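Form 12-C: Joint structure prediction
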Amino acid sequence: MRNVLPLALLLAAAIALPWAAEAMGQPATIGLATRIMCLGIAAASLNLILGHGGMVSFGHAAYYGLGAYTVGILWEHFRLGEPLFGLIPGTNQLLITLPVSMLVAGVASALIGALSLRTTGVQFIMITLAFAQMVFFLFVGLKAYGGDDGLLIRRRNIVPGLDLRDQDQLYWLCLGFLVAWLFLQWRIVESRFGRVLEGIRQNERRMAAIGIATYRYKLAAFVIAGMGCGLAGALTANYLRFVSPDLMAWQKSGEIMVMVILGGVGTLLGPVVGAAALVGMEYVLGGITENWQFFLGPILLAVVLWAPGGIMGLLGRGARRG
Amino acid sequence: MSALVVEQLLNGLQFGIMLFLLAAGLTLVFGIMGVINLAHGSLFMVGAYAAALVAQASGSWWLGLLAGVAAAAATGMVIEFVVLRRLYARDHLDQVLATFGLILFFNQGITMLFGRQPLMVQLPQGFAGSIEIMPGVPYPTFRLLIIAVGLLVALGLYVLIQRTRIGMLVRAGATHREMVRALGVDIRLLYTVVFGLGALLAGLAGVMAGPVSNVQVGMGEQILILTFVVVVIGGIGSVRGALFGALLVGITQTLLSGFVPGWLRQVMPGSEADALGAALSSMGVYVLMAVVLLVKPKGLFPAHA
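Section 2 - Result
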């Protein structure tokens, strides 16, 4: 964290974005930026296990969707006024729904991780995908919460002192969570725990040989990443005011992974840059041509072939040290 | 009841054969080159589209078959030559990103050329009807043709891999890639041949799928994920594993979706039973895969044994 000044400038620019957008007559940018913040948290959390722990999870969208559905289901029971399972009352308080979302995603990732981490390599990629598909089809079949059609959240959650119906305030909230999450992740990566994780990525057998129970470290990181993605999902549900199984489809997992790789694997800001790049390209190319994906595909290809290390690698800054 | 079971078993067999055609190529590419090719489903789609268009224009399904297989094989070789060749030495992440880009390119390209409207494919002459497989149980002959073709391909692959020099190199490549290279085999040529073969089979699967299901954009990804399940269950790099895994997945999936909604309907209202039944039967194969991987992390027939 040597470059404090550029980071501070970046943060100041991010905070000032809503005013700039209004001044330039582009209020749609604020919604776009909110999406980038949410996806940025999701991509950053995947980066913790993928970039720092070498665990290629192809089912990360499951936790994204679980976090979002937690907000949706709590809202649905709040709206109907009947408790979930006759026990848990619904709520629309953000200060309750966010921690519950993270808890749900954390429990799910603990269960899935405990089983999945018994495998490695391609098998790990595929088993995380398999579990995510199970969760996906479970929610497709849950007619009580809309099944395939998804669930409408008519009003955003309530936070004392804020009005989330105002898109600027929602944006700042998401930005705040993104900054907090990145700070937390930076502390994790720089800690002893983070060093062990990095060691596991480079050579798990050696880490085991020097007496470290690698399974526990990997599982802990997996759960933290799951919880981060649950948080991202809960914020997304508030932004979209709608949840559907699409949020946890395998294409979403792929998209989150693409953001990480596009931005720069194992870098602090890379995943957020990747999220911004992907959402931005979608917006810009989508404005020019209906067939924007036809051009996005080759661009991704070009990044892989000629810019290993992603955008951050191109910028030559913030690249993985050591 | 037993007639229904036989019919569903045959449907499962047919679906499994279809999965095998895709999985055989994917598992070889996976096992020998170490490449995760998400665009394998695109080759399936290219084959289906080429066949559908040529069949429409010429009026002959068999000409369409030739065109589909040729188009998929050619597309596969071009992909290998232009893109994948540069990715062999990279890690799985780069391969995932690159082939994800290829999916976007192909899906949108097909949409631009032929629109979003699904293409309908006529059944080939002589295979449009059905025959009685058991007294009072008719079964479409085209589905029987799919099963026959698939079994022939399986036999052909067995002979190719167990009895020929190329097959020997393929087996060696799946077990000890570095050693094959060190012995002076032109590994690049082997890679292109194997990839072309895999693409050809994917195209064949697409052609055969045309009359059974709609030919549309995105058809490749629907089946791609199941193909990966097959490959992983069977054991990466093993064609025998791919056949076994494909039949297991195909029959499990078909039987579950055939019977679970009916059972559920006895205990809950119809529409909910159908939705939950569809969800549970879709989850079934993934549960199967998770169990297999937890018991045998390398799959049922690992090539690296």
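Section 3 - Comments
Residues 206 and 298 of chain A are 39 Å apart (CA to CA). Chain A touches chain B through 46 residues (CB under 8 Å).
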